[in-house]
Each structure stands twice: as structure tokens, then as C-alpha cells.
Specification:
- This protein has 231 residues and is α/β, with parallel strands linked by helices.
- The chain has eight helices and ten strands.
- The protein has a six-stranded mixed sheet with strand order 6-7-8-3-9-10, sandwiched between helices. It has a four-stranded antiparallel sheet with strand order 2-1-4-5, covered by helices on one side.
- The longest helix has 16 residues.
- The relative contact order is 0.18.
């Protein structure tokens, strides 16, 4: 069976500066992969390439054994991306943000799903207030709710714990666990090694522009991960 996603000799350069060189790894359905590396290692760049926000300078990306470029729309409809950047419309309410996003993705029974999601992310009481007035935790929950609208098969997460308050953190960790238990696939960048290891099945270490370690997360310790980052 073909991997859900495969990167073969993927590289990225900005001018004369090389960020990633000959990245090779596959992502199978149902995996929870934690990608770690020092600041400036290229983790966010790699996630942008995986999520199609950025094109590689060279290399091949395959989706279920097919060239991803030829099936890009299908790919975009099964992934959900989340970063520490706020990509919501601050002047719009939660309802309007969700409605706009759901309309773009052609979500059926949109109003019903919006009501259900607002309950799940505990924002019903502020559903009609402008998002610019939200706390960082509320904003992050709404960003997650936006992804939940179309039920992606893959989550691509860049420092998702950033800005979460205690209430939002516990809810989000529970959401990730349930998503994975139900067969979802996750590729996550985080500096919160202990939290990542609670959920991850596999760890990739990005160092010196390439994948230096690719190992099962079973029995892996925070100290070992930290040691790799100090190499």
C-alpha cells in the first residue's frame, strides 16, 4: 500500500541560502509524527511545503502514490493546518468566520455544524462578538473549530500549544488524542517535547538541513530528544 504522503529528495533554497536539502520521509495513515529541531532548522518551512503553502526548490512529493501536483485539490480537502499565526478575520464574529470558511469548502448542513462546533469549542456565549476581542486561547479554539468544519484526515500543526490557556490546552490535547484514535494522521512541530511524546508514535529530528533521526516514539524520553537537539 502506498504511503499517504512521501517526500523524495525535497530541497528548499531562498536565493543562495539552503534551508532544506534532500529531505526524504513518508507519512502513513494513522501515524502521529512529531517533528523537532532547533530554531532556524527549517521546521516551519518543511510544514509549509507539506501543506502546499510553499513550493520546494526541487524534489518530488507524492500523495497516495501519485504526484501531488496533479491531485492538489483532493489533497487540500483532506488536510487541516494550524499554526501560531492568527488567520481569522478580526472584524467578523465566530459564526461569520466559520460560515465564510465552511462556504469556501462547500460544507453541507453548515449552520448545524457551526452550532455543534461552537458548543464543542465552548464559544457559544461569544459567538456573535468580533474575534479581535478574543483571548489567545479563545482565538486558538476558533482556529481549531474552523478545521473541524470539514473533518480533515490529516492535521499539520506548527507549535499548536502556543497561546493556549489551561482550559484550552486540556481541551486541545483531548481533541488531538481522539482525532488520532479515530484514525487521523498528524504531523506536528512543537518545542513542548513532553506533551508531544504523550501522543506521538514517531519522531523526526531536523538538523543541518536534513532528517538526522527517524525513530519510533515508543519508550523515547524527553532527555533523548533534548540530546539530539544539542548535537
Amino acid at each position: 500500500m502506498s504511503a499517504l504522503l512521501s517526500l523524495e529528495r525535497v530541497s528548499k533554497r531562498f536565493g543562495f541560502r539552503s534551508i532544506l536539502e534532500n529531505i526524504c520521509f513518508s507519512l502513513d495513515a494513522g501515524e502521529f509524527v512529531m517533528l523537532i529541531g532547533n530554531n532556524g532548522a527549517g521546521k516551519t518551512t518543511l510544514l509549509h511545503i507539506v501543506s502546499s503553502l510553499m513550493k520546494p526548490t526541487r524534489g518530488t512529493i507524492s500523495f497516495r502514490g501519485r504526484n501531488r501536483k496533479e491531485h492538489l485539490q483532493e489533497w487540500l480537502h483532506i488536510i487541516g493546518s494550524l499554526s501560531h499565526e492568527n488567520r481569522l478575520y478580526g472584524d467578523l464574529s465566530s459564526i461569520d468566520n466559520l460560515r465564510l470558511f465552511g462556504t469556501l469548502y462547500g460544507v453541507n448542513e453548515l449552520n448545524i455544524k457551526i452550532d455543534n462546533i461552537l458548543k464543542q469549542i465552548d464559544l457559544t456565549h461569544v459567538a456573535r462578538l468580533p474575534v479581535r476581542n478574543f483571548s489567545s486561547g479563545m482565538t486558538k479554539r476558533l482556529m481549531i473549530g474552523r478545521i473541524m468544519l470539514y473533518q480533515p484526515k490529516i492535521l499539520i500543526l506548527d507549535e499548536p500549544y502556543t497561546g493556549l490557556d489551561q482550559h484550552s490546552f486540556h481541551w486541545f490535547q483531548d481533541y488531538l488524542q481522539k482525532f488520532h484514535q479515530q484514525g487521523g494522521t498528524v504531523l506536528m512541530v512543537t518545542h513542548q517535547l513532553e506533551l508531544g511524546l504523550e501522543l506521538a508514535t514517531r519522531v523526526l529530528v531536523l538538523h543541518q538541513q536534513g532528517i538526522q533521526h527517524d525513530i519510533s516514539a515508543t519508550g523515547l524520553s524527553v532527555n533523548q530528544c533534548s540530546a539530539w537537539l544539542e548535537e
